[in-house]
Specification:
The chain has 557 residues and is of the alpha/beta class. It has 13 helices and 25 strands. It has a seven-stranded mixed β-sheet with strand order 10-23-24-25-21-22-11, with helices on one face. The protein has a seven-stranded mixed β-sheet with strand order 19-16-17-18-12-15-20, with no helix packed on it. Strand 8, helix 8 and strand 9 form a beta-alpha-beta unit. The longest helix is centred in the first third of the chain and has 16 residues. It binds one RNA strand of 75 nucleotides through helix 5, strand 5, strand 6, helix 7 and helix 12.
RNA sequence: UGGGCCGUCGCCAAGCGGUAAGGCACCAGGUUUUGAUCCUGGCAUGCGCAGGUUCAAAUCCUGCCGGCCCAGCCA
């Protein structure tokens, strides 16, 4: 690795382990997998796992599978598998094989029979409540079930009948025979199979019994010859069980489970259950509401795959619980958008300006750059006329000295157009300023003066007769609390101002044909994309520009 | 008071016995027809705390302190 690469190629303890496994010859190729359960939409936390698993495979020239962990049919749905596939594709990763745990139901079942034959698993008739009682507590050992020493023949018979659908849900359970006194509760004869007469999205009504996660995951990994099985910290206690199952079962490989800390982002939540609740309780419009930390929400909001991937590279991978600041994500988004977004002008809160000395009815075309630093992005023509709109915020009746914008007697530059000086303003009956009267300097066409006088402020504008009307959605953080998930009721901390809908915004004419997926910078206000779910002309603000003035203004107050 | 794991700058994060990378944030300047971008500089005598080993410790040892996870027939 060269010195230049040090900042761009992430290094972390997992990559170090993989590198040494490759160096030592333990493995000759890397095989990972991203194993979502299709019971909800993917969020930014999953993006971290996706970038890790696919990223590692990519960088070590290995492969990564996309595997749906679909062993709980009651909560899973095809809607979710399709959304997940779309999201992974959007992030621009390519999987080796697309698999489902349900593909292995028969093998899993066969392995279970083998386990029973080895005397390592038994059918228990204890009820769920009894099992909980028998399990013991964190500080006390559990008790062995009366069925623990059922004969192998009887276990085989019972398990076969479970599979045949002879029993009602909950009547029997297949358990591993490990150690009821283990200090690790996961090892106290964990459940392997439960009876659940539920219809499965893929296997239909073939199975009245479904395997549990601990049993399924490790075997699925082994079947796919996964070399490094990366998962989050809460599964650390499950690793002994992961290894136990693979030690009992005859598989060709024994993947290594490695745990890392899940992503936590300040002022939002990354829990499928809670996100689901936001949708169900209508706090947001859906899983893809642009305020949601879901991948589909971020996509609709205008985040780019590159920015999400960059973010994941920056935050690192460790075993430490941490909370990432939103600013890191926003920085990644701004960095990518600054590079690629097309510059245009859009007035969000219009204030009419009449240029008194500009000829009535005259219209002239001015040339604007599509990107200030990138000539190759070209230019476009914009229309200028006697009546224009500027941003309300760009005029102040009583302006402080450092306010480089309009006020009576002050001169500013209209971007790419002329210098104008405010001479007067009009108020309505409520005392609200509704119009500005200005004079322009004909010598400053294009935005520079022959006398070279310095103009501190440049503001954006749009010609009244040429602008298109649009709605604009402004988004702010969804929660007012940095850790809503840690509160008793996270819904109490919803930010009432997370969405501001602006109507009749005045945008540059070219935006009438704006297409979803094209990123724009409305100069001086932020990055925007056309909303994908609305027919009328509606834009979503992806993120604001950095605003030093807002910061100064705030400090002065 | 069972087990597992974690503590390096406000937020992340390198570091793996040789004298504290980097990013975000923040602060101070410069350039600028976006108060944007960009550029320059500043920002841990210190690595949870206390002892010990060593010529040398964030790195090794011991003991504390603090935090997270586990008692679903969820994943």
């Amino acid at each position: 690795m060269s010195a230049e690469d040090e900042n761009t190629t992430p290094t972390n303890f997992i990559r170090n382990i993989i590198q040494s496994d490759l160096d030592s010859g333990k493995h000759h190729a890397v095989q990972t997998r991203f194993p979502p359960e299709p019971n909800g939409y993917l969020h930014i936390g999953h993006a971290k796992s996706i970038c890790l698993n696919f990223g590692v495979a990519e960088d070590f020239r290995g492969k990564c599978n996309l595997r749906f962990d679909d062993t709980n049919p009651e909560k899973e749905d095809d809607e979710y598998v399709n959304a997940i596939i779309e999201d992974v594709r959007w992030l621009n990763f390519e999987w080796d094989n697309l698999c489902y745990s349900s593909d292995y139901f028969q093998q899993l079942y066969d392995y279970a029979i083998a386990l029973i034959k080895q005397g390592k698993a038994y059918v228990d008739s204890l009820s769920a409540d009894e099992i909980r009682e028998y399990r013991g507590t964190l500080t006390e050992a559990g008790k062995e079930s009366p069925d623990r020493n059922r004969s192998i023949e009887e276990n085989l018979d019972l398990f076969a009948r479970m599979r045949a659908g002879e029993f009602e849900d909950g009547k029997y359970l297949l358990r591993a025979k490990i150690d009821m006194a283990s200090p690790n509760i996961n090892m106290r004869d964990p459940a392997l199979y439960r009876i659940k007469k539920a219809h499965h999205q893929r296997t239909g009504d073939d199975w009245p019994i479904y395997p549990m996660y601990d049993y399924t995951h490790c075997i699925s990994d082994a079947i796919e010859n996964i070399t490094h099985s990366l998962c989050t910290l809460e599964f650390e206690d499950h690793r002994p069980l992961y290894d136990w199952v693979l030690d009992q079962v005859r598989t060709d490989s024994h993947p290594q489970q490695i745990e890392f800390a899940r992503l936590q982002l300040k002022y939002t939540i990354t829990s499928k259950r809670k996100l689901n609740q936001l949708v169900t309780d209508k706090h947001v419009s859906g899983w893809d509401d642009p305020r949601m930390p879901t991948i589909s929400g971020m996509r609709r909001r205008g985040y780019t795959p590159a920015s999400v991937r960059d973010f994941c590279d920056r935050i690192g991978v460790t075993k430490k619980d941490s909370f990432i600041e939103m600013a890191v994500l926003e920085n990644s988004v701004r960095e990518d958008l600054n590079e690629h977004a097309v510059r245009v002008m859009g007035v969000l809160n219009p204030l009419k300006v009449t240029i008194e000395n500009y000829p009535e009815g005259q219209v002239e075309g001015l040339t604007a750059k599509n990107h200030p630093q990138k000539e190759e992005m070209g230019t476009r023509e914009i229309s200028f006329s006697k009546t224009i709109y500027i941003e309300r915020d760009d005029f102040l009746e009583d302006a402080p000295k450092k306010f480089f914008r309009l006020s009576v007697g002050r001169e500013v530059r209209l971007r790419y157009a002329y210098y104008i000086t405010c001479t007067d303003f009009v108020k309505d009956e409520n005392g609200e300023v509704i119009e500005l009267i200005c004079r322009y300097d004909p010598e400053t066409r294009g935005g520079s003066s022959p006398d070279g006088r310095k103009i501190k402020g440049t503001i954006h504008w749009v010609s009244a007769g040429h602008a298109v009307d649009a709605s604009v959605n402004l988004y702010d953080r969804l929660f007012t609390h940095p850790n809503p998930a840690g509160c008793d009721d996270f819904s109490e901390h919803l930010n009432p101002e997370s969405l501001t809908v602006l109507t009749r915004c005045k945008l540059e004419a070219c935006l009438a044909e704006a297409r979803t997926g094209i990123h724009y910078q409305f100069e001086r206000t932020g990055y925007f994309v056309r909303d994908s779910e609305t027919d009328s002309l509606t834009f979503n603000r992806t993120v604001t520009l950095r605003d030093t003035w807002a910061k100064i203004d705030k400090q002065n107050q």
